[in-house]
Design goal:
This protein starts with a strand and ends with a helix. The protein is elongated, with a radius of gyration of 28 Å. The protein has 21 helices and 18 strands. 41% of the residues lie in helices and 15% in strands. It has 3 domains: 183 residues, Ribosomal Protein S5, domain 2, CATH 3.30.230; 209 residues, 3-Layer(aba) Sandwich (Rossmann fold); 67 residues, no CATH class. Helix 4 packs across helix 5 and helix 7 runs parallel beside helix 8. It is an alpha/beta fold. The protein has a 5-stranded parallel sheet with strand order 11-14-17-10-18. Strands 1-2-4-3 form a 4-stranded mixed sheet. Helix 5 links the parallel strand 8 and strand 9.
Length: 524
Amino acid sequence: MSFAQVYTRSVVGLHAPKVIIEVHLSQGLPALTIVGLPEAAVRESKDRVRSAILNSGFQFPNRRLTINLAPADLPKDGARLDLPIAIGILAASDQLDPDVLSGFEFIGELALNGNLRQVTGSLAVARAIKAERLAVKSSSSNERRLDEQQPAAELTSVKLIVPMDNGAEASRVEGVEVLGAQSLKAVCDHLQSLANPSIPNESLAVVTPSPAPQHVGYQVDLADVKGQHHARRALEIAAAGGHSILFTGPPGSGKTLMASRLPTILPDLSDEDALEVASTYSVADSDYDYGTRPFRQVHHTISAVALVGGGSRPKPGEITLANKGVLFLDELPEFDRTVLEVLRQPLEAKQITISRANSQMTFPANFQLVAAMNPCPCGYDGDTSGRCRCRPEQIKRYQDKLSGPLLDRIDLHITVPALPIADLQNAQAGETSEQVRVRVAAAHKNQMQRQQKVNNELSPSEIDKYIQLGESEQQLLQLAQQRLNLSARGYHRVLRVARTIADLSDSIDITSVHVSEALSYRSK
């Protein structure tokens, strides 16, 4: 046998398309050539693979080796192709039975001694395998319904072999059998035992997924926030309806403290959403506490590419890492205006499309924006102590760093006053995150039953369908539109917030009280 095929996956954006590694041995001077758009890490794999094969007790073929990574027009990067390339070489040189490879997919980086090292994107690979299997089953079912006399094709259950350090992560995907291996030798022993059961080799064990936590715990709690009842109420509304929020107040008034508590009162992620978030962090090679809502706090020196994603080969940015969670921008006017303006489209579309000359990637960006700012450069404009010395033109220049279109996309504008020390010392403990989360979860459940999405995601046509106002509420909104100069976007956002307030009070109808409270959060 001088030809072998091995199946693996590349990672492009957040997706993991299948890659077929074709290995061919031919006559000629000893050489190893890799074709099929390999990037630097893949091109360098030939040296790692050669040493790993020799140090695992196998022979490296002293012939001309051509390795094709199909499809040829798909870029391949990362060291995750080391293991499948090594398996392909051993199968093509008759050191492994190629017939047993069809039921497996392989990913893993090889050390020079043959050990397997952890790679990025294993969860994305497992999710892609499951999605492909479901698509095949659906197609087979449709064909069987069209022709009942034709039996459905048997579906081969593909097993995924990964480094042991990736086993726990990849095994979270239900329905995908994941085998963890410590070395190339262990993988080959497993394959040889399948080809010849009489060989006393040890088989790889199936990785058992760790049980999902019954309740997600956070290190912080909303009870840490004393006083600030108006801001706490706005935070609860933002959590219930998925709304964006802007805190304005002097330094030390608790803006950052409250922003960091927002994830603790959000409803728990569903299993599918938790897998989606964990898959994103797996691709980005970032730590993630499984099941928690992401909270991304970025510095004001961040670039636009780092915020929304990009690069020659588009990679996810902070807004994608904050998907299903919270993106916190502290000291909002200190951000570069160009950086802030790129948020306008993702705030509406809940996704971001990065276009390059040779590729285009769409990343999810369904995050809640929480921003904080001071009212003036020194931070004390309007303070009763009178210590602000900023001139009016300085204050205007500072506030003009934020564009009107961006502010118009923020649902809740909250003023956070500084609390006297005496009030902080005598303040009673507020509600805990658990207590607030119960109300938020109930409102969220109402929205899912009514419209299958949170209120902040309602389109204009869905607003007309699900948000009905009485005559007095319509008159109140018309008057407010004249006094507050509400745009059409601002009008729709007031309606969404009013719908959320009604859901929190378990009210089917939106009353004037709900509309009035929503309008109070709109004045800048």
